Amino acid sequence: MSIQPCRMVFHPDPILRAKAQPVEHFDDDLRTLTEEMIRLRKAHSGVGLAAPQVGHSVRMFICNTEEEGEEESIFINPEILEASGPLEWEEEGCLSLPEIRGSVRRPIFVRIKAFDLEGEPFELESDGLHARIWLHEFDHLEGTLILDRMRTLDRLSNRRALKELESMYAGGGH
Predict the structure, then answer these.
(1) What are phi and psi of 136, to 5 degrees?
(2) What domains sit in the chain, N to C, each tagged with a CATH number?
(3) Considering 66, 120, 137, 142, which one is annotated as catalytic?
(4) Which end is more exposed in the chain, N or C (fewer Cβ atoms within 10 Å of the end residue's Cβ)?
(5) Model-wide pTM > 0.70
């Protein structure tokens, strides 16, 4: 995987609907991709970003809520070990779907297993914002978007913005 400066990928680019492939090599290319993803996440003021959103169909995402002292979390080949507890509706947005927001229902507790940049495994759990971010970003690795999970009324209210994205994509604008 040769990494050049990455760019954000927007709906309806097909890479966003493909199931991402496992990362096989923990090397300098992976580090470069990570640096590019961190740069883009910050530039677009996001809290999370998955590799398919920057044009690389590999199973990796990053997140950082920008709370004081929080470092960038990097999840390579993640697995959701548990997603449980009450389901809560909360508004979500997505960097690949600018101007689109909607209520998404997700379990409040998540336990996740992944690898870091050195290829070392780790497990984390959360029952807060991080759990929601992990599930959102994991969805990207499965080819699922918030459009697939939001309430019907929210999908309807975002129709115009979706049509604009689709026409920009068709016209080569993204």
Answers:
(1) -60, -50
(2) 14-170 (3.90.45.10)
(3) 137
(4) N
(5) yes
